User: What shape does this take?
Amino acid sequence: MPAVYPENIVERNAATQDSIWFQNDMNPVSTVVHNGKEASIYCVGDVRVRVEDFVYRNVGEVIDAGVTTDEQLDEAVERGDIEFLNNNWFELFDPALDDVTGIICHTIGDAVEEAIKYVTS
Assistant: This one.
């Protein structure tokens, strides 16, 4: 069974799976290891979200606007209250290859699932 670090990252972020809730700080969000094969999950890209007349560039500002979960985010986008000008994403990196895998996801759950598939293939 693959090991996922930090443990329970998907469960702890059940209400905040979208990549917007994670920071692009050049550190892996999560790492999946199995039989010596490893995949690191990085949050990549910049966030720019328009809320009314303001453009926010980080999750703290989106939270300050009253949006704190994926459900609230989806509802706000659907209503037109929030418009994404630019969004971030999760990308898998293979340290053994010192390169990205080409696997891109938009939720942490999908990213961990894809990393598990990658290290067990």
In short: The mean pLDDT is 93. The helical segments are 9-12, 59-64, 70-79, 108-120. The two ends are 12 Å apart (CA to CA). Residues 29 and 42 are 5 Å apart (CA to CA).
